[in-house]
Design the sequence.
């Protein structure tokens, strides 16, 4: 009779294998001002991309309307 090596692969076992203090040795204070400035930069980028997308959509509708009216 053969015996088989049964290996359980679960997220819980994988999670236990990770040693978080060794992965992040320099755990210090969080610099809130840098996080807020990064958040503001991301908001500006998102706003600009939303404006560009809106302009492109309005332009496409306008061109399509002009083509249909001809």
Sequence:
């Amino acid at each position: 009779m053969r015996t088989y090596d049964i290996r359980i692969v679960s997220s819980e076992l994988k999670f236990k294998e990770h040693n978080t203090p060794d992965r992040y040795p320099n755990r210090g204070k969080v610099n809130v001002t840098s996080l807020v400035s990064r958040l503001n930069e991301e908001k500006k980028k998102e706003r600009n991309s939303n404006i560009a997308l809106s302009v492109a959509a309005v332009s496409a509708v306008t061109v399509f309307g002009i083509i249909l009216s001809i």
